[in-house]
Amino acid sequence: MTVMTRWLVFVFVALLSACGGSSNSSNSAPSNNGSTAGTDNPPQGNNGGGSPETPVSFGTPASSQIRPGMEISADGSGCTGNFLFSPNAQTVYIGVAAHCFSIDTNDGIDPCETNNLPIGFNQVIIENATQPGELVYSSWRAMQEQGETPGSDVCVYNDFALVKVHADDLANIHPASFAFGGPVSLFTGLASVGDNVFAYGRSPFHFGLRNLEAKTGSITAVLGDGWAYEIRTDKASIPGDSGGPIFGPDGQALAVTSVLSVGLGGPTVLNVRNGVANVDRALKYAIDAGFINADTKLLVWPDFYPAGNF
Hints:
With 310 residues, this protein is mainly beta. The protein is built from four helices and 15 strands. The strands form three sheets. A six-stranded antiparallel β-barrel has the order 9-10-11-14-13-12. It has a five-stranded antiparallel β-sheet with strand order 7-8-5-4-15. A hairpin with a 2-residue loop joins strand 2 and strand 3. The longest helix has 10 residues, at 279-288.
């Protein structure tokens, strides 16, 4: 059992990368969207407030675009991309889970001691892209460079990576997630137990069925002093959903799917619980430590559809 899978101890616990080994702009430039990334966290219960974010005009999203919820694969791993980020008008990143780029993901090794794909690895396959993307940030590599202590909260829960979209594909991006739309803003600070959440995963084992890809639930615990959350959802996340977007109660970018646990909550009740990494905390770590540009912002979309049929 890996350090990551110690988050939740139920009948079954597993990292969600479907692998045996390793683990844009449209008509408007994706800048000046006013994200609060890189600022100090406001008090708990902010519910995604902070400075308002101004959506960029991207037009109507299409299924053929590079969007949150895309399938991402690299060196044998298969995951789901989460949100889009941009430091300037010439650069767009798609978020993924860091464990998707580690060759030790399922080998019982602490994230702060794993072997990982190198920064600059440029054969990341992004659904709907014409060119491979490039790994530009991995929290698992960054924490090792920072000398974080294995077993600490940051090592256990900080599971976030960024892949740069190739310049040839910048005209084909859109920030609206499949199923839910949004994100309307970055959820800053800490969410609370009981808050509603919305999750999306694009595992091929969902066979393209939207009612399996889109999930709803609520937060059941705050983990690692705010580095992550435990959530309970109505349907299971499965291998390939790892890295997928988790939305807060009003469509904010809240977290990244990282760990799955399924267990029995009673004689006939099946609990489907995930460990999800706090995006605000993970992004702030990357910026504050100087691994990514301090101007890196979340790209947003004003419309959110909690029914999950967008």
